[in-house]
């Protein structure tokens, strides 16, 4: 009898616990939507989709439907964007170069690549002073070259040097951003640099530099859209809507190309003819086709060059980094 009572009490308690657990689970509510969404704004080289989206207030209008304030932040430097993502002051990063993304992920910055932004290998070139002392990549040996380390420009240089059995140890590498590097080569402080458009055309127009080698065949020139992993996990629908709006800005630009050119020229303080001339060098397809393979190839190369720790599993890194599940289905 005593055992029967104990068994009955046990079964009753178990039933109550299961019922409470089920009720608790059914009562769980999704995380509250944020009061604001923060995204980086990068208008250069000629980031037509972002320029158009900002001008037309596409993101602002979309998220205002839920009472969410959308804020653009003018942060062109990749390192600053990544710091902002890590500190949670930025949710989305637009036009982030792929090398910076790989190195950030390898260093523990928890981010996701959710879309391509652009590819423009034709819009990047290694340039030198036109005094005749450098006519081939091999002639860079012993010379001073300026560029921003840890970027696609850095990888381009390493790959170009490797073709002639040289490394960065065979020259003097000065770390500076592209604007500073363009000034440095124009004033004779360095012998070479690697510049992206539209800075490339602007600097060549001075007559103080000449092209030596474009990025074609060396790097993809890929930039991506990245998001904080935590934001993506807690607000997946907002991430999908973000990409839907971005795609809308790409589609609008294609349909209204002349107006898109005009808006971009004004924003970037360029002649509209210059924007039209540069446009064919850029591909704004948002798909992630070939992105994983591109990132794996680059990450393996960077690891071989000592820029990523040897104990990092490259395949796992890239698999965890790229997430196509947020892309628009139509």
Automatic annotation (TrEMBL):
KW Transport (keyword) present: yes
Stretches assigned to the Solute-binding protein family 3/N-terminal domain: 36-260
Keywords for the protein's UniProt record, in alphabetical order: Signal, Transport
Keyword Signal applies: yes
SUPFAM superfamilies reported for this sequence: Periplasmic binding protein-like II (SSF53850)
Pfam families: NMT1
Signal sequence residues: 1-26
Localization annotation: Periplasm
Top-level taxon of origin: Bacteria
Entry-linked Gene3D superfamilies: Periplasmic binding protein-like II
Main location: periplasm
Gene Ontology, cellular component aspect: membrane; periplasmic space
GO molecular function: ATPase-coupled transmembrane transporter activity
NCBIfam families named in the record: SsuA_fam (TIGR01728)
Family statement: Belongs to the bacterial solute-binding protein SsuA/TauA family.
Name of the protein in its database record: ABC transporter, substrate-binding protein, aliphatic sulfonates family
